[in-house]
Amino acid sequence: xxxxxxxxxxxxxxxxxxxxxxIVMDPFEGRDVGYKxxxxxxxxxxxxxxxxxxxxxxxxxxxxxxxxxEGLHRVKGIEVKGIGTYHDDAxxxxxxxxxxxxxxxxxxxxxxxxxLGHALSGKEVDEMGxxxxxxxxxxxxxxxxxxxxxxxxxxxxxxxxxxMHYKTPVIDFxxxxxxxxxxxxxxxxxxxxxxxxxxREDLPSETEIFVLxxxx
Length: 216
Known about the structure:
Elements: E1 3-9, E2 12-16, E3 22-25, H1 30-33, E4 44-46, E5 65-67, E6 71-75, E7 78-86, E8 97-105, E9 108-112, H2 122-128, E10 133-137, H3 146-156, E11 160-164, H4 178-182, E12 188-190, E13 195-198, E14 208-211
Parallel strand pairs: 3-4, 4-5, 9-10, 10-11, 11-14, 12-14
Antiparallel strand pairs: 1-2, 1-13, 2-3, 6-7, 7-8, 8-9
């Protein structure tokens, strides 16, 4: 059984299980971000917070069920956990709240950190539990930057970390490129595509960073 992960740009991903179940996280419109508007079908859409570059649910096809709140949600046979965090380092006073979502498909536990803006507490890490694949913002300014992302990576210790929400040639936000986060790191795999298929038995035993190409 292979799980497919597709980076649609910025903080938006589609994760599709071997049974065809598809989950999209943090959709956007191209005019707002610079990437192409996602042209995909999904069963479930997860929204980490209500900012314009993360909540454009209407662009996703297929009449998906939308989750945009903390807590446990049972959606189409999948348990989705929403963990409350903040979009800044001042308990939300600057940019509001953020939700980390975690779920499991094909035996692989996925966590999407949304626009996390602070280091995680032990309680939050415990709530996440085991994480096999983690989508983590690394660009700074609006979210955690390279140094904070390093700390989160060490705390959570996923088997695969996929950087997101960073500067590329198509986005005009004042955020850092992924190279700032990758500097000095040894376990980095450049995928050469915006898609990857993963089997649980083939996941690395220790944290490895998978860098997906941005969609063109």
